[in-house]
Amino acid sequence: MEDTSAKAPEPDNNAAADDVTTSPGKGRNGDLKTGDERLLWGRAAGRCQRCNDDLSRDPLAWRAYNLAENAHIVASSVGGVRGTGEESAALADQIENHLLLCRKCHKIIDDKHRGEKLFPTDLLRKLKLDQEALVRRLMDLAKKPQSVAVYISAAVGDTRLQPIVINDINMAIVNAGLVPALSHPIHINLLSLLEVETLDSDPEFWIRANKLVRRELEAKVLESSHKRLSEVEHFSLFGMAPIPVLALLGSLIPDTRKAMVFEPIWREINPGREALRETIDIEVRQYDRDAATWSWPKERSQPWPLLGYRHLAGPQEQVGGDIAVLCEMSFPTHPELVTAALPDAPLYMLNSSTVSPNIIQALDTAEACRMARPPPASGL
Prior knowledge:
By secondary structure, this protein is an alpha/beta fold. It contains 11 helices and 11 strands. Helix 6 links the parallel strand 4 (146-153) and strand 5. The N and C termini lie far apart (74 Å). This is HNH endonuclease.
């Protein structure tokens, strides 16, 4: 199969040249017309239909560059890879017989020794149809709410979080029926807190964490140049950090735009999209350690948790003062540490019938935990 660059050919003013064809036994029988080349590019969204690389720019310098090649599924000549006497001439200039590929993948599927065996015609046709169907599905999401991903990385105990995986975070948003609002998550980096020798057992840790969270949030979210806060439709929070740090972050991210300037032009520049509401939806994602992904699993591996409150110590009825609540969901807690710090405070526990790091496996489970309420008689 010939090496054909996926770019619009130069205009040919010689009408007679249009009638010239090449003999089937000596070379190609034709290629895509200019309009079909653009259609092929559009259907593939400018991506290699085999490896998904972006073919519109230099991956190193990030400058605009056309790296695409048109690849025949059935070769345009009988002597080419997957070429046949019946189909080569008939399909040479048909868009259904063309893939948009990077040079690397084009060379691999057209290898003279292994190309036809490893990449038969049926396989390549399925590859083309599947990729184009995926593009259509993703484009159908364009009118869905756009979610701004906020990623927080901090020390948990003495463990440093693994590097951020952008594609996994973006795919988790897509799997939730949303669209990533930004190419990269907004990263709130708290790993400098590792400098505190005793970590979260030291009061200095929480003083510094409080200041750092507020500073990072203000710089990267509230006053971000990435996306104006008044235009944010949805937040997706991804993070593995000490619970109080996550709780602080959740309390600081605004969930309302009541005080923000509303721009009527939104409806004009976003036809078909829902109008902005006063509230900003926020979804907190749970990292699946077993599958190593931020996406919710398709099926639960843990039984549905039964949530309940228990009174552990102290007076059961109290007005004012400190009240301690332990949340025992993903790991066993230590009530004795709480009673040592707050000996006179009522101590309650919100616990689950199943205690596991993977207890939160769907959005509705997280919502059930958020809506869990203590007994009315507890005074909480």
